[in-house]
Specification:
single chain; globular
């Protein structure tokens, strides 16, 4: 009996010691600057969300949060970088809709299951934008030209297999049109090329084109959404024009799958506060980006559902 009591006492002591150790680990995290990887070039909506989030997060990270752009392969370069630099939860990344699309196209060797979703911050519809001096005043004008000369119109996207590439492909199928897709390492570079006259249009989000649209340099032709966007209430949706497409991007934060539990718990606690901070919400909306909050568990369920949905959608599209 005495031996059993001694064993039980030792087990209890070990368990009791483990709790303070876990709490201590959480208190010590982060022990160094946290790197937030943006898998696209500066200038686009993803970069804007990341930098806004890092700024509002600053009070919660005494060692700082550094934004690092690692673009290429539609986001895969940045996401691979995070898996190769796990660093005990000190290297995180912004994830977008391409996070679930690229694996289905065989363009990314990992899936959302290799990561830890932490928080969703944003969602925006896809859109088609043209230069202000474009001869295409309406989406009907644009489609008429595409039907008259298939593949003659050059439309920029944020990369092969990107959400805007997929949205544009779906638009082609549903509208019986065909364009030449010109991939770029993000919407920012694509819009700059549109501004420079190298493209006929760009498939992007209204938020990413907003600065140019409001400056009178570009014109939105259509939104691929269920309803109109308040900031661009005069722009019709594709469904209003009889084209049944409604696609868009989303953005959130994730880390590698096997981060220390204490780090994950603390990050989720911090990010819940940051995501609902009025300063972050107003900053996102000020950039014409759509604000959407979901915690890590809900965000992961969204990714699982979209993986199943896109697996079916991509069977009907021809994406090279």
């Amino acid at each position: 009996m005495r031996q059993r009591l001694m064993v039980a006492g030792l087990a209890f002591a070990s368990a009791a010691a483990a709790v303070p150790a876990q709490l201590l680990a959480a208190d010590n995290y982060p022990s160094q600057p946290v790197t937030l990887v943006v898998p696209f070039q500066p200038g686009g909506g993803t970069d804007a969300v990341a930098r806004t989030f890092a700024k509002v997060s600053a009070p919660y990270f005494p060692k700082g949060m550094v934004v690092l752009n690692k673009s290429g392969a539609g986001g895969a370069v940045g996401w691979n970088y995070v898996l190769n630099n796990k660093n005990e939860g000190h290297t995180l990344t912004v994830v977008t809709a391409e996070f679930v699309i690229l694996p289905l196209l065989g363009l990314f060797d990992h899936t959302y299951k290799d990561y830890t979703p932490l928080v969703q911050l944003n969602a925006d519809p896809a859109a088609i934008v043209v230069p202000a001096n474009s001869p295409y005043k309406t989406i009907e004008d644009f489609m008429a030209s595409a039907k008259k000369s298939p593949a003659a119109l050059n439309v920029g996207t944020s990369g092969t297999g990107s959400i805007y590439d997929v949205a544009l492909s779906a638009f082609e199928v549903k509208s019986d049109t065909r364009f030449t897709h010109i991939p770029f390492p993000g919407s920012g570079p694509a819009l700059l090329n549109l501004l420079g006259g190298q493209l006929d249009a760009v498939a992007t989000s209204p938020a990413e084109a907003a600065e140019y649209v409001r400056a009178g340099k570009m014109r939105l032709l259509v939104l691929m959404s269920d309803k109109r966007v308040p900031d661009f209430a005069d722009v019709p949706t594709a469904r209003e024009k009889g084209i049944d497409v409604a696609y868009g991007t989303w953005r959130g934060i994730a880390g590698p799958k096997d981060m220390p539990p204490a780090a994950v718990a603390k990050l989720k606690q911090i990010f819940e506060k940051v995501a609902q901070d009025p300063q972050l919400i107003s900053a996102i909306k000020a950039q014409n980006l759509g604000y959407v909050y979901a915690d890590g568990e809900a965000f992961e369920k969204k990714m699982a559902a979209e993986t199943a949905d896109y697996a079916e959608i991509l069977k009907t599209l021809s994406i090279k």
